[in-house]
Each structure stands twice: as structure tokens, then as C-alpha cells.
Amino acid sequence: MKKYAIIVAGGSGSRMRSNLPKQFIEIGGLPVLMHTLIRFKEAFADINLILVLPDNQFDFWEELCQKHHFTVAHQLVKGGNSRFQSGKNGLSVIETDGIVAVHDGVRPFVSTDIIRESFEVAQEKGTAVVSVASKDSVRVNGQAIDRQTVRLIQTPQTFQVSIIKKAFETEELSTFTDDASVVEFAGFEINLIEGSYENIKITTPEDLEWAEIILKRNA
To answer: Where are the residues marked Transition state stabilizer as a site (predicted)?
Structure first.
């Protein structure tokens, strides 16, 4: 079984109040994005890593790789104007069947166990999407709903290659919030697996503070 991971990183750093895109901010001496790539390589030594970046960030990324002597093999792919287009561009370089995970580049703390489980479930059932329960009460349009029915969706979102490629043949819709929503729209069932509250998406300065805490705790 061929294994792929499409790591999507298209952030600008605006919510981080930084001129440096959030995927390049250093934590623990390495850019966030390098931590993410390393984690997938730790999960599967034979995984094919595909990194989707805006093409105007390619040169800077190459400079960072040289600076940090980063040697984890990966293929660079030009990002699109939306998450849908970036995902589609990443899929376009996969030419064989197998299992592919799509993951946010700024989620560096996903565990190797979660990555491996997502591949196992996707191989068996076709899809596997990481999620956690909501800790907070939830309201929709002012109305309270049972939080036991709510799941907060994370990444990786992992699929049989044939399924996600078929799903991405559709035109982009504004209702697509992630890769799972595209696959579900195509008629495929989404299987949820348990995630982790440490699997944070680093988008704000507060997230960066929490990231440093997680790094120290797991050192």
C-alpha cells in the first residue's frame, strides 16, 4: 500500500500579527512546518510527503531547509487560491492508488498513533477523519444544542486515493469547509476517529504559547 501525506500550508500570519507566515514561525528551534513533516515521517518511514505552499514562499522555504539542515524528503507543489484548489493541486501529483492523508501544516503535534490509526481505518473503510468532543456548550443561531452530538474536526483527514480523487472532480462550492466535506458531498461516508486536544492548529499568538508548553511537556 502506497502512503501519501499532503501537508497544506498557505497561511499569511495575519491572525498571528506577524509578517512571517505562521508555518515558518520557530518553536523549539525549528519552523512549525518542519515539526509537522517530521511527525509524519516518524509515523511511516516510507511515506511520500507532498508539501503545498504558495509559490512565492518556495525560495524562503528552501532557505529555511538549508539553514536548519532539514533533509526529510518531500515534494513541493504550488498552492491554489483556496484550500480546495490547494488540495486538488496536491492530489494531482499522486499517480498511484494507496492511502493519502491531508493535514494542516500548522498542526505539528498530531501523534504518530493517530496518524497510523487514520491510515488503518481509511484502508479498511475508505475514510478516516480525526475529531474530538466539544468541551464547551454549543449554540446555533442562539439555540442550545446537545454538545454530545458535536464533534470538532481536526486533521489528518485520510482517504483511499481513488475516493478523494473522485470527490475532487466536482466544482468547488462555498459549503466545502475541509476535505471531508468534499468527500461527503460526493456520496462517501465519513468515519470519525478520536483525535487529541494537543493536536492544535497554530493560528494565534495564544496558540503559540500553548505550543511551547506542549513542546516542553513532551520533551
So the answer is: 15, 22
